[in-house]
């Protein structure tokens, strides 16, 4: 995924004063009408062509959507342009040609820049072409809610789906690269429920599950809760495997035990961290091509920061964040987060 530089956020700062009142009052919006136009006829812009985003965009193309893409990584864009997919040089240019724009970026700062930067999606001011923005990045709920305010303050160039104003959904995903490839992601969606219902076919072109989580920011909140639980479970499974090896039990044997008893979880039966136990997962290819440890560290930081803001104690999340930060400091930040088995617990490959 592209790493965008943080630039001036004047459009965002102008809306902060309206933040509290916006969420205290009920939505006064027109109901979305059922469109007689097939969803695939919509022009879809996709920004962020990393491990996840490139595969999500591919599935939209396979589903028949007219897709335009952008990423700061020109090599990533070239892979699409060589297949005849339209590419653009900036988020602003994507917005100018799209009815719907999906973003999949590494951090809150990247998302803010793509939406509110000098060449961002909202650059044209208060009049926009896209009726719907979908941010599938994993970011803090506060940023998602502020973006919702910024987008709601704009209007549409042309009324679409019986709407005069655009809407944004925060819709982070779960399932990792394998699910992005196979189109079996789970979307956790926050924002206007009517917009969520109107865009379900879009989500189901990239995933198999969609869960409506409530108002703006709730999708982002759900995702950081999911990822903190995932991080802790991966640490627990890795610790168990490494201890078992030290006690003379093979990881293959322990995997059979875990997966047929109370320790069974996604980290043991679907994403096993021990090289040589399971094919088709990052541990089978030197921990390459999965969910980077640096991204897990970032997500855990989002969780601890959000917990502090509401006065919630989360000791396991704090410990997990420290461990993944240590992995990054040791130079393993680009490796899949399951590499904690090898590089933190000194676990052995299965022979």
Q: What would you note in describing this structure?
A:
This protein has 351 residues and is of the alpha/beta class. It has 16 helices and 11 strands. α3 (53-62) links the parallel β1 and β2 (66-70). The longest helix is centred in the middle third of the chain and has 29 residues, at 218-246. The radius of gyration is 21 Å and the shape is globular.
Index terms:
351 residues, alpha/beta, six-stranded parallel sheet, three-stranded mixed sheet, globular, disordered N terminus
Quick structural gist:
The protein contains 16 helices and eleven strands. The chain has helices spanning 10-15, 19-24, 53-62, 74-81, 91-96, 108-116, 141-152, 176-182, 193-198, 200-204, 218-246, 251-259, 266-269, 293-309, 315-332, 340-343, and strands at 43-47, 66-70, 86-87, 100-103, 127-128, 132-135, 155-156, 167-170, 173-174, 185-190, 207-214.
């Amino acid at each position: 995924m592209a790493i965008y530089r943080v630039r001036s956020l004047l459009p965002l700062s102008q809306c902060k004063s309206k933040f509290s009142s916006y969420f205290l009052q009920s939505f006064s919006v027109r109901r979305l009408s059922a469109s007689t136009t097939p969803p695939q006829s919509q022009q879809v812009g996709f920004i962020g062509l990393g491990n996840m985003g490139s595969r999500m965009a591919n599935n939209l193309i396979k589903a028949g959507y007219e897709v335009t893409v952008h990423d700061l990584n020109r090599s990533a864009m070239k892979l699409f342009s060589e297949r005849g997919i339209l590419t653009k040089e900036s988020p602003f240019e994507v917005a100018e040609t799209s009815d719907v724009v999906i973003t999949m970026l590494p951090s809150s700062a990247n998302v803010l820049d793509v939406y509110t930067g000098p060449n961002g999606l909202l650059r044209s001011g208060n009049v926009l072409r896209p009726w719907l923005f979908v941010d599938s990045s994993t970011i803090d709920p506060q940023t998602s809610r502020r973006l919702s305010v910024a987008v709601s303050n704009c209007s549409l160039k042309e009324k679409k789906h019986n709407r005069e104003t655009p809407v944004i959904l925060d819709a982070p995903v779960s399932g990792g690269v394998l699910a992005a490839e196979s189109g079996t992601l789970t979307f956790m969606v926050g924002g206007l429920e009517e917009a969520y219902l109107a865009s379900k076919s879009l989500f189901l072109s990239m995933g198999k599950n969609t869960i409506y989580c409530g108002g703006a920011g709730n999708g982002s909140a759900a995702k950081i809760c999911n990822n903190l639980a995932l991080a802790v479970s991966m640490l627990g499974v890795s610790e168990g495997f490494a201890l078992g090896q030290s006690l003379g039990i093979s990881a293959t044997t322990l995997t059979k035990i875990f997966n047929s008893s109370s320790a069974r979880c996604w980290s043991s039966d679907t994403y096993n961290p021990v090289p040589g136990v399971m094919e088709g997962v990052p541990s089978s290819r030197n921990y390459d091509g999965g969910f980077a440890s640096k991204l897990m560290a970032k997500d855990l930081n989002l969780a601890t920061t959000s917990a502090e803001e509401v006065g919630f104690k989360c000791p396991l999340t704090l410990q997990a964040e420290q461990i993944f930060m240590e992995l990054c400091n040791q130079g393993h930040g680009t490796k899949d987060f399951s590499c904690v088995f090898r590089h933190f617990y000194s676990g052995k490959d299965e022979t």
